[in-house]
Design brief:
heterodimer; A: alpha/beta; Fumarate Reductase Iron-sulfur Protein, Chain B, domain 2; Rossmann fold; 3 domains; 24 helices; 10 strands; 52% helix; B: alpha/beta; 11 strands; globular
């Protein structure tokens, strides 16, 4: 797993045109986010509030979780608690089986992905239909998501056209997005009308009212819940917020940060089951309490899952979501993966250039880049540091702590300019891959300065 | 110990320094002309807002806007062009095939073009399943921003939703398509 990132990124970059499209498209989403943020004069104040409210709530999560559970129960919702993924999946299956469910329509839930729920339910004989268009495409293609908000961003329209041709019998060769979306609408409408249960995630669980708030653009979560007699909600315990005042802050930030829209098309408050129907909420820990107990990484739990950190990350935009080893990619995925299993996901940590753009884009001010930096400091003690990089560090340390040696080496450096190409550009020099090395200057700055050769730019222009 | 107690006990091992609940009191954006801002934002997200001229009949306007709608569902007393009263249907699935639903909005939000709708019909599917959705909204009922909105939003019969424009997706190559699963078009009639 450890060296997976460069290899997987290289695979993605093989189709240079596609990789460029990926980079440009996500950058466009980032620019839309910027334009939206700038249209709100109090944007930075909102981010500050979002961060503080989450921090406050996480510190009293025991209190707010109980409050949410009590409010929801008083509204007629059955509340369950799951310590881990196994427990979560077992609960979902029990609820579905006791209601005699054969077909479940699901709206997008990263928690369900985290728990690997679909294969578990399918093995128990339940038909699971993903209803978000991107998720449905991936389900039909048998692929995992490569982005948390734009799950099928890695696929071309031609690939989707071909897939639909095979699975939904659309016209051969037609890859028009409107045509394909309409075909999916008809196909999924039939599933909505025949499903026995609907499952959704939760964007927010409001403690004082017991509301489960779900935000979508497609309306797929709403279609599922409005038609099926049973609604099952999976929510990570960090989704709880105190009240509607807090919700106002988050609904203003979420879609603007995610896709550059002022708000999602649907922001739905589910407070009680429909008459004669059932609603269940499963509150899931699955490692979150451990993350919260770790002062260096607890802030990860403030995440709203908007994906802004991915869209802005130069490494993510260039390498694509599949380069990352954890199912959630990009800066936030690196933290979530590492807090789960550092051994499995440490290979992604060096991909970051520590440009800190993610910190600036994050609406909840999660200290993403700082966390990556801290993980890097820990890699060696966890025996996960790369051997060549350790060697380079040791040599550089020697060089930088011995001024005489440094000066002598620098004096010899220009010789590199005259070396045969194969000695400079080979597999030992990762920096020489895909780019030309800058030539060494004939003389170091220090020497030039001492000889009075360095002129201030103003003098020079005279 | 139950899972609940176990999780709550684990949460009491706090790691990050204490932080009081901040006062969510900020000078949020306001607009000199809320109707104009609401209309512009709604158009930006793929919907439309039409102001009803005083004395005009909303039924006439709806007919003009949706000339092809044959199955029109509404439980509002003034909507005479309705062909179906959704509250008479036994099952929400029977709403499949409705071309146009006409519903009442509680209030609109100028900053994002959203309209708050509570449960004022038997089945909430009415807001999602029809091909097109028309929302009647009084011009006095438009607030500036989401802070004002949540100060006002009341949930009734366990349900409430902000709807901002028609249903949409960009899941195929980030190419925007209006009309994913919900309404393929949305008009707010400003009264």
């Amino acid at each position: 797993m450890k060296d997976n990132y460069p290899k997987a990124a290289a695979r993605f970059l093989r189709d240079a045109e596609r990789a460029k499209w990926h980079d440009d498209t996500l950058w466009m989403v980032r620019q839309k986010r910027d334009a939206n943020a700038r249209s709100i004069p109090e944007w930075e104040q909102l981010r500050h509030l979002a961060s503080q409210i989450k921090t406050h709530t996480l510190l009293r999560l025991d209190h707010y979780l109980e409050q949410f559970a009590d409010s929801a129960a008083a509204n007629g919702i059955t509340v369950h608690w799951a310590a881990d993924a196994v427990e979560h999946n077992r609960l979902v299956l029990e609820i579905l089986q006791s209601a005699g469910v054969k077909k479940l329509v699901k709206s997008k839930s990263m928690l369900a992905e985290e728990c690997h729920l679909n294969p578990y339910l399918q093995a128990a004989g339940i038909e699971v239909v993903e209803s978000d268009l991107g998720e449905r495409i991936l389900q039909l293609a048998g692929q995992p998501p490569s982005h948390i908000v734009m799950p099928a961003i890695h696929l071309t329209r031609q690939a989707v056209g071909k897939l639909f041709e095979e699975k939904l019998h659309t016209d051969p060769g037609n890859s028009d997005p409107t045509y394909l979306t309409r075909a999916a609408r008809r196909h999924l409408r039939q599933h909505f009308l025949t499903a026995d249960a609907a499952m959704t995630g939760a964007n927010f669980c409001v403690a004082d009212s017991g509301d489960v708030v779900v935000c979508t653009n497609e309306g797929n979560a709403d279609m599922g819940v409005a038609l099926a007699p049973l609604h099952v909600v999976s929510a990570g315990i960090e989704k709880v917020i105190p009240d509607a005042g807090a919700l106002a802050v988050y609904t203003r930030l979420l879609a603007r940060s995610a896709t550059g829209q002022p708000v999602t098309a649907y922001t739905t408050h589910h407070r009680a089951p429909r008459p004669g129907c059932q609603m269940h909420v499963i509150l899931v820990d699955n490692g979150r309490t451990d993350t919260l107990a770790n002062p260096e990484h607890a802030q990860t739990l403030k995440c709203l899952r908007c994906g802004a950190c991915m869209n802005t990350c130069p490494a993510y935009r260039h390498a694509g979501g599949y380069a990352y080893s954890y199912l959630i990619p990009g800066p936030i995925g690196m933290q979530l993966g590492m807090s789960r299993d550092p051994r499995a996901h440490a290979g992604d940590i060096p991909a970051c250039s520590l440009c800190y753009s993610c910190n600036d884009a994050c609406p909840a001010k999660v200290d993403l880049a700082d966390q990556t930096y801290r993980w890097r400091q820990q890699l060696d003690s966890m025996h996960l540091a790369s051997a060549p990089k350790k060697l380079i560090s040791r040599v550089l340390r020697l060089l930088f702590t011995s001024p005489k040696l440094y000066e002598n080496v620098l004096r010899l450096a220009p010789l590199v300019n005259r070396l045969p190409r194969f000695l400079v550009y080979n597999r030992l020099n990762a920096w020489g891959r895909d780019r030309e090395m800058p030539p060494f200057a004939g003389e170091s700055f220090t020497r030039a300065w001492k000889r009075g050769k360095v002129k201030a730019s103003r003098e020079k222009s005279k | 110990m139950t899972h609940k107690d176990e999780i709550l006990a684990r949460l009491r091992r706090r790691a990050i320094p204490d932080c009081p609940m901040p006062d969510v009191c900020l000078e949020a954006i306001t607009y000199p002309d809320k109707v104009k801002q609401f209309t512009e934002t709604l158009r930006l997200v793929g919907g439309d807002a039409v102001e009803l001229t005083p004395g005009d009949d909303p039924n006439r306007l709806l007919r003009e806007l949706y000339p092809d709608a044959r199955v029109i569902a509404s439980n509002l007393p003034g909507v005479t062009i309705a062909t179906v009263n959704p509250d008479d249907l036994a099952d929400p699935r029977d709403l499949d095939g409705v071309h146009l639903a006409v519903v009442a909005g509680d209030f609109g939000v100028a900053e994002n073009g959203a309209v708050w709708i509570t449960h004022n019909t038997k089945e909430r599917a009415l807001y999602f399943i029809p091909d097109y959705l028309a929302i009647l909204l009084h011009r006095a009922d438009i607030v500036n921003n989401m802070h004002e909105a949540y100060g006002r939003a009341r949930v009734s019969a366990g349900f409430g939703v902000f709807i901002s424009g028609p249903s949409k997706t960009a899941d195929i190559e980030q190419s925007l398509v209006i009309g994913a699963h919900g309404a393929k078009g949305l008009t707010v009639i400003i009264l």
